[in-house]
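Example record

The entry below shows one chain as it appears in the dataset: sequence first, then structure tokens.
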Amino acid sequence: MTPVRRNSLIVASLAALGLAGFAYAQIEGNDRGVPPIDSSANYEVGNVAVDVSAKTADQARTFGWRLAQRRAWKMLWAKVNNQPEADAPNLADGALDSMVAGIEVEDEQIGAHRYIAHLGVLFDRSRAAQALGQAETGVRSVPMLVIPVMWSGGAPQSFEHRTEWQKAWARFRSGGSPIDYVRPVGNGLDPLILNVAQAGRPGRGLWRNLLNQYGASDVVVPIVQLVRQYPGGPVLAHFSALHGPDGEVIARFDLTASDSDKLPQMLDEGVRRIDEAYAAALRDGRLRTDRSLEAPAPVVPELPEEAAVESDTGGIAVPGAASTFLVQVDTPDDPALVQAMASLRGIAGVKAVATNSVALGGVSVLRVGFDGDPQTFRTALASAGYNVLDTGGGLRLTRPK
């Protein structure tokens, strides 16, 4: 369902309940919505400290970035291979240049002859994989809907207003994580349906609808509670990583920022540690999707076995039908199978449709009972928009491109 259609349906439903004005009040305004900045599959190494001197400021900065690449490479190799940094192979600057996708300045101080900074280095995953000594393999989670909740001043907020916690999750480069995060922007109707109350609801029916709308299969709720000792002073943050509609606690920890200016940096570190906690839970088998979030399997009617007998039409005879045919249809997923069966049932003269063999992600075979001869059946299929090919043992149905 497209976002426009989804929004229209929700607003129409609220209007029918006399709540349209309330809904508009909840979603109006332009102080919400932070699109994620990067989901590309890059390795990221952050907080690389450099302190170099040179004849000029530009030269010092260039040397600093070169040094950051070298240090980040050793840190990345050690993390991926679970080995000491000292064992990392030394690569030439040209080789590192070809692998580095970008440099992110976290903070820097530039003097006439000196450069001090904390940098983030992004490595292109495909180019770095061979040098890291491993293939692009590993466990990856199902799509996880992210609902970030921040407590500040005694009140919780999710997407109701733009928060520093939402901004931190939008800044997070998730491509290198084994967790497949689905990060809503937070505009449109997101504040209305992905609010703090929803994050704590256990009802599975509404969760299934929301996950389906956002293309996710599960949900994670990262929470931060900010405690300010006094205005402009230190900020204490309590972090919690929750998973699933029942709020299973994956990890808890605390961080402190010396003042409000350091708050974004502290929240970025909180996102990184929460991602590590989810990744560890995935590897340990603790990040399992609740089966109650899975959509119920569609009911597919089956013909009674005792009523099916061999016929001279190359198929299986169906009571009440003049002929029965085996037809092959593309079924990339379960909804496609249900849609194909419904489409065939809607053709005039079709008496029954049932599965003969199911191959989700491939070609399934259906039994179709039709009140007419083979040529009439072919004509009816063509009129319904199918391309019909004779496979020798049945018919192959495709839709025009």
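Notes for this example: The radius of gyration is 29 Å. DSSP finds twelve helices and 17 strands in the chain.
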